[in-house]
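#structure-requests
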Amino acid sequence: MKPVEIRELSSDDLNVKLKEARAELFNLRFQMATSQLDNTARVKQVKKDIARLQTEMRAREIAAAGALK
């Protein structure tokens, strides 16, 4: 997921995407442990997507706090 796509999402959509990404990461780790994972690079991609989603959520939180002052 690209940063531009993430910025266009609403806060609710960000939460949903974050939950989905964490579930996917869990499943990928489970597949890796049982030697069923074919694309090991996908784990790194999902981790980066999670980080991007969390970064955008935090940026919005800081912007909202700054707007209140």
